[in-house]
Amino acid sequence: THSLSPCRFYLHPEMSKDLVGTHPPGAHSLVAVSVGYFLEDFVDMLCNQKLHQSWELLFHHSVVIICFGIAVLLHQYVGFALVALLVEINSIFLHLRQILLMANLVHTTCYRLNSLINLGTYVVFRIATLAWMTRWLFLNRQNVPPATYAVGTVGMAIMTPMNIILFYRLLRSDFFK
């Protein structure tokens, strides 16, 4: 469901002008289902992984649940949440990387190809999207209530460094061994 986000912007260009109050039919449901996914994944990690192995993802999921939850409850910022879902396109390749690692297929062409696609989609869908979202938030600060602006700013201040650190780890692990 996450990959529907780019299509929504193409089909509903008015969202590029108003990410606060404008969203196409089904977008609210998509964000609500995403909250459910992040909640389920959060609980699964709590139950099935050691805290020292998953604390970063638990923290990430907490921020997403809070931010998306606000959008769902207020029926506002759904467009902004859709932009944030673009980040999840890269998750396909991050997850495939993990599967290939678990299958001990690190020295295969498939792993190498996935590593390249993973890094490319990481830059486009994670780093560039987070940079764009931070810029949008800064440029629209006068139109965003202070509490919502604070939540958004803190969310971006948490997500951006986390994603830069993960990018560095991926580079180091897959390209600079």
From TrEMBL:
<dbReference type="GO" id="GO:0055091">
    <property type="term" value="P:phospholipid homeostasis"/>
</dbReference>
<dbReference type="Pfam" id="PF03798">
    <property type="entry name" value="TRAM_LAG1_CLN8"/>
</dbReference>
<feature type="transmembrane region" description="Helical">
    <location>
        <begin position="55"/>
        <end position="74"/>
    </location>
</feature>
<feature type="domain" description="TLC">
    <location>
        <begin position="1"/>
        <end position="177"/>
    </location>
</feature>
<keyword id="KW-0812">Transmembrane</keyword>
<dbReference type="InterPro" id="IPR006634">
    <property type="entry name" value="TLC-dom"/>
</dbReference>
<feature type="transmembrane region" description="Helical">
    <location>
        <begin position="116"/>
        <end position="138"/>
    </location>
</feature>
<keyword id="KW-1133">Transmembrane helix</keyword>
<dbReference type="GO" id="GO:0097035">
    <property type="term" value="P:regulation of membrane lipid distribution"/>
</dbReference>
<feature type="transmembrane region" description="Helical">
    <location>
        <begin position="150"/>
        <end position="171"/>
    </location>
</feature>
<dbReference type="GO" id="GO:0071709">
    <property type="term" value="P:membrane assembly"/>
</dbReference>
<protein>
    <submittedName>
        <fullName>TLCD2 protein</fullName>
    </submittedName>
</protein>
<dbReference type="GO" id="GO:0005886">
    <property type="term" value="C:plasma membrane"/>
</dbReference>
<feature type="transmembrane region" description="Helical">
    <location>
        <begin position="80"/>
        <end position="96"/>
    </location>
</feature>
<dbReference type="GO" id="GO:0007009">
    <property type="term" value="P:plasma membrane organization"/>
</dbReference>
<keyword id="KW-0472">Membrane</keyword>
<dbReference type="InterPro" id="IPR050846">
    <property type="entry name" value="TLCD"/>
</dbReference>
